[in-house]
Design a protein that fits this description.
This protein is mostly helical. It has helices spanning about 1-15, 35-50, 75-80, 110-130; strands at about 25-30, 55-60. Helix content is about 40%, strand content about 10%. A two-stranded parallel sheet has the order 1-2. The chain is globular and about 40 Å long.
């Protein structure tokens, strides 16, 4: 058994690329790169790369260059056309009424209230996505 472990270790030293295996996800958004949602997506991709030690790379595309707008994002992911997506939740209302929540005007009046509402809504949003076989990433 010890010999097998040593051989496996030697193989990893000979093939360091195996240690750097990388998964790449395409993640479109309909927003421009320099608009608030695009800046957020760029920051998210950097966070994921750092948190995964480079094992997961998210490749964003902006301005609906992938041909996918918010309303079609869930279908595009479920069909495997992309691995992840950034969408305006209000555009997904036809999928589940919970997605309309962020687009309701005057629902909150402060940043603290908005954070509290987001924390309360998160499990409900995640459950709506889970029904479709998808996962909320944040």
């Amino acid at each position: 058994m010890r010999l097998l472990s040593m051989l496996a270790g030697a193989c990893l030293l000979l093939f360091p690329a195996a240690l750097q295996a990388q998964t790449v996800w395409d993640m479109p958004t309909e927003y421009p790169q320099h608009a608030m949602p695009g800046v957020g997506l760029t920051a998210f991709t950097k966070y994921v790369a750092e948190s995964s030690a480079g094992k997961l790379e998210i490749r964003p595309s902006f301005d609906a260059k992938a041909g996918i707008k918010s309303a079609g994002m869930l279908a595009a992911i479920a069909e495997g056309r992309v691995q992840a997506g950034d969408a305006f939740a209000g555009a997904l209302e036809a999928e589940d009424p919970i997605f309309a929540l962020p687009s309701l005007p005057f629902l909150v009046t402060s940043t603290a209230d908005a954070k509290r509402l987001a924390d309360i809504a998160r499990p409900h949003l995640a459950a709506a996505l889970q029904k479709k076989g998808l996962r909320l990433l944040i």
